[in-house]
Amino acid sequence: MNYKKLAFISSSTSTARAACQRLRKRYGRVSLKKADAVIVLGGDGTMLKTLHECFQLDIPIYGMNRGTVGFLMNEFRETDLIKRLERSKTIELHPLLMRVKTVAGIKKDAYCINEVALLRQTRQAANLMLSIDGKVRMKELICDGAVVATPAGSTAYNLSAHGPIIPLGAELLALTPISAFRPRRWRGALLSDRAQIRVDIQEPKKRPVSAVADYTEVRNVKSVTIMQQKNISLNLLFDEEHDLEERILNEQFIP
Length: 255
Known about the structure:
Layout: E1 6-10, H1 14-27, E2 37-42, H2 44-53, E3 61-65, H3 81-87, E4 89-93, E5 96-102, E6 107-112, E7 115-120, E8 126-132, E9 135-143, E10 145-149, H4 157-160, E11 172-178, E12 189-192, E13 197-201, E14 209-213, E15 216-218, E16 221-228, E17 234-238, H5 244-251
Parallel strand pairs: 1-2, 2-3, 3-17
Antiparallel strand pairs: 4-17, 5-6, 5-16, 7-10, 7-14, 8-9, 8-13, 10-11, 11-12, 13-16, 14-15
């Protein structure tokens, strides 16, 4: 692909903004709608925000780490950027759609790249009923919450909640409880990425629960339906030496 027209996006840190200015001076700049690729400078949070902004643009996104963790970012270098883009490997991601209904009857949809998290709002543990493709699989899960994660998000909150790491391309989603009290030994499930997951909150007024999809939080939810959107594709570019699949694999062997 020809990468002559580049758009640059940076986080608000002084380091990222200064790097962005230097790259724009070196390579020029165009708007997102006219760009052959988007260059993101910052950390994983900036990358997630940019992915949301590019849902409908069908444009490849290449990140360079000017933040902290940078799991989704390549190494920062100002030189040979066009050659790096031309040699890069493309990873295709599909977001999750979170469809929420609140206790008050309000309906809201939101997309996320990493995970949908259901979290108790008060000292009372959440009481959840889990259904997969219209069939109730667990009538009662008493817990602090639950996470539904994509492969790309499986190394984030899902991993911290002791969920499984999922290789890219595995066509699976992780359903992971957060501090499960009953059933105490339940560690979660691996589901097809075409599954429709529904979570009904039992006693939602007594045991209120919030639902979070990346930047969107909805409080006092009554039910949440989660499904992956195969019709939306997001293309991330990675250097050959920064293989996201390899990084996800390596995470499984960190002691």
